[in-house]
Amino acid sequence: MQKTTLTISLIILLVFSTSFAQEKVCKKGHCLKGDVGYVSFSIGPSIPLGNFSSNDINNTNAGFANTGSKIEINGGFNIYESTDLALKLFYSMNSFDASSLTKKLATDNPGTTWTTSGRSWDLVGFMVGLNYSYPFRNKFVGDVKFQTGLMKSSTPQMTVTGSNGAIITEGEKSASSFVYLLSVGGHYPLGRLIDAVGSLEYLSSSASFNNINKVSSTPGFTPVTSTSSFKQSISIISLNFGVRVKF
Predict the structure, then answer these.
(1) Where are the beta strands (DSSP E) in the chain?
(2) In this structure, is residue 37 part of a structural domain?
(3) For 219, phi and psi rounded to 5 degrees?
(4) Dihedral pair phi/psi, residue 220, rounded to 5°
């Protein structure tokens, strides 16, 4: 009896919500967004490109980044009809591909097996820009976005361990850099105030990491300490899906 009552209640609620959505009168923007703006949440794969994805040990600009994941929160406020002020807060995590490094160490040290742990790329950023929306058929609305801002890139400590007892440790380091993003996508209404959203985004930046500590130790020998600096080009493409709420 309780299950039947719950089912009927859900059906009534669904019908009421659908009817209410059809009665919605958009005041501006061709029903592209809410009367004031919107907030959305999206998630998807983060795919490194170019030098950022390279694992060539001979490439001094290689980032050794693997495909990871990206989450983001977007906000928009109406400026004029189809154009809105777009805000974005995002986090991307890409694991570190150390296979070429361990292969080189194995070649230089025959008979020794090497393993790595700890290293990954963590990207956190905030951006602001403009979003332009254009309505197509069947309620689908296309979006084009350009944003710029700041990003903090972090490389957590990495430890390389050899079966002969040798240990190589590279310290953790973070750097801030200017970042820009281009995005194309769209949204489709699921209800009066809820849309399904999707986007294909390209993000690019260049970060400088200075004075990274490196310690190499081998049983029976004095540990060797050194520092290094490098500039890393960071480019990723992400395919994001989620929902947004209009207000």
Answers:
(1) 37-48, 68-80, 83-95, 114-117, 120-135, 141-155, 158-162, 167-170, 173-189, 194-217, 224-246
(2) no
(3) -50, 130
(4) 90, -5
Phi, psi for 56 (deg, rounded to 5) = -80, 115
Pairwise CA distance, residues 218 & 29, whole Å: 67
> CB–CB of 170/161 below 8 Å?
no
**With a cut of 70, which residues of the chain have pLDDT below it?**
1-34
Which domain covers residue 213, as residue numbers?
A: 44-68+79-184+198-239
Q: First-to-last CA distance in the chain?
A: 37
Residue 192 zone, left/alpha/beta (φ > 0; ψ -120 to 50; rest): alpha
The tokens for 152 are 């903090």
Residues 6+ apart with CB under 8 A from 143: 131, 132, 133, 183, 184, 185, 186, 187, 199
- For residue 180, what pLDDT is reported? 97
Picking from 202, 210, 193, the residue whose alpha carbon sits closest to that of residue 21 is 193
Q: What is the pLDDT of residues 128-147, one digit of tens each?
A: 999 998 888 778 889 999 99
State how many domains the chain has. 1
Which parts of the chain fold into alpha helices (H)? 2-22, 50-53, 99-108
**Domain-located, residue 190:** no
Where does residue 150 fall: left (phi above 0), alpha (psi -120 to 50 degrees), or beta otherwise?
beta
- State residue 20's pLDDT score: 40
